[in-house]
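Regression test case RT-17, inverse folding.

Input:
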């Protein structure tokens, strides 16, 4: 058979090979044609399942995780900037760290206001829980958020954002 397609050899676990065969039989396709269809759906997104509830749930989970990761990146960037400034001071001799042989004190980066989703990620709860606890009153929320926060920081809701209180 002459074809312009490129041959791809793969080894499937028996469980997935059986699923492939079942799908091919269901669609009245060869295994090869089935694999082409699956790859097309994956790369081109032509699957009718693209708007499935599972996909929506997965997208929401990814967005939440991304928001938490972005908050962590902001914190890491601030820490790196402080370390660079400290190192520049040591290298230029503007600090007494070498003379006294003491470790310079490290200043924690200033925490930024967070959205409910980002704060929920930091506290290890859902955004709904953050909102519910915030509605119970400011004093309650200050104590509750401090008990959940990894850095023992209290948080206060102002408008749509949550601000750290030290």
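Golden output:
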């Amino acid at each position: 058979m002459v074809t312009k397609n490129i041959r791809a050899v793969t080894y499937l676990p028996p469980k997935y090979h059986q699923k492939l065969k079942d799908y091919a039989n269901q669609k009245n396709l060869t295994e090869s044609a089935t694999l082409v269809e699956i790859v097309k759906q994956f790369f081109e997104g032509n699957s009718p399942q693209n708007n499935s509830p599972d996909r929506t749930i997965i997208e929401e989970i990814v967005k939440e995780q991304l928001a938490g990761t972005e908050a962590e990146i902001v914190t890491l960037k601030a820490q790196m900037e402080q370390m660079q400034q400290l190192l520049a001071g040591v290298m230029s001799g503007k600090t007494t760290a070498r003379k006294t042989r003491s470790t310079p004190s490290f200043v924690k980066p200033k925490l930024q206001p967070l959205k409910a989703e980002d704060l929920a990620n930091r506290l290890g709860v859902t955004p709904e829980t953050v909102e519910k606890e915030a509605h119970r009153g400011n004093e309650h929320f200050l104590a509750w958020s401090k008990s959940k926060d990894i850095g023992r920081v209290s948080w206060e809701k102002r408008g749509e954002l949550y601000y750290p209180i030290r």
